[in-house]
Amino acid sequence: MNKRINHVLRLLFVFAGMNLVWYIVYLLMNHPILPSPGSVYKAMFQLDGHEVLLNVGYSLLRIFEGVLLALLIGLLIGLLMGRSPLWNKLLDPVVYLTYPIPKIALLPVVMLFFGLGETSKVLMIMLILLFQIIISVRDGIKAIPETTYDVLTSIGASSVQKFWNVTLPGALSVILSTIRVSLGTAISVLFFTEIYGTEHGMGFFIMDAWLRLDYPEMYAGIMLFSLVGFVLFLLVDLLDYRFMRWRR
């Protein structure tokens, strides 16, 4: 309990420090492009609640769909590569040739093939996460000692029981770590995709405020988008705490 309180206090201290630095820079610049923290918070509380919820909801839905798609495909391919030498030999060159490609550079290609609608936005998030999940799951499963499976075999465990009790926990551990690391990049890519072909989403909200030169509202949108990322990061931590107790 004390650790949690200390962690919260550290977060609050850092948040206060960031606001202090922001205010000092605001005083030094004295320019409309950087409003004061107070004016941004005031603009945030004056936003239309329905509009904010709608934009946040669209962004969260796109993130959820992209992450879910990446998990389904990445877990399947990672399991095949981790447990089957044949599949690993076939798919390993494909993964390593395509993994280094900067996924943000594929944004124009994805939009050409799938248009400016929801599909391209979800696919970009999926591409950001997919290859990291594949490699992490494969390596995580390969790191499980074969003796662990031998013990379960000796007591008559079925393949399904081995999967649920050994393979999946080993894969889930690295999946959560990968999502935690990649989530920030995925949200950044979502911002770029929401600039085009949509009237909903936090990316659209921020750019719309920028075009109207409403800088307090623009910064309020950035802070709300950051809050979405922070909440998602906490959610991953909660999942890790709930399902990875065996690591502690």
Structure description:
- The chain has 248 residues and is mainly alpha-helical.
- Helices cover 81% and strands 0% of the residues.
- It has helices spanning 2-29, 37-45, 49-83, 85-98, 107-114, 118-142, 146-154, 159-193, 202-211, 215-243.
- α6 (118-142) runs antiparallel to α8 (159-193).
- The chain is globular and about 70 Å long.
- The two termini are 16 Å apart.
- 27% of the residues are buried.
- This is NitT/TauT family transport system permease protein.
- It is found in: Cell membrane.
- Residues 56-236 form the ABC transmembrane type-1 domain.
- Do you know the CATH topology of the largest domain? MetI-like fold
Q: Which H/E pattern describes the elements?
A: HHHHHHHHHH
Q: State mean pLDDT (0 to 100 scale).
A: 84
**Poorly predicted segments:** none
Q: Superfamily at the CATH H level of the largest domain?
A: MetI-like
State the total count of DSSP E strands.
Answer: 0
Largest sheet: none
Helix fraction, binned, reads over 70%
**Beta-strand content estimate:** under 5%
Question: Over the alpha carbons, how many angstroms does the gyration radius reach?
Answer: 22 Å
Calculate the terminal CA-CA distance, rounded to whole Å: 16 Å
Alpha-beta content class: mainly alpha
Approximate shape: globular
Overall CATH architecture of the largest domain? Orthogonal Bundle
> How many domains?
2
Our count of helices gives: 10
CATH class of the largest domain: Mainly Alpha
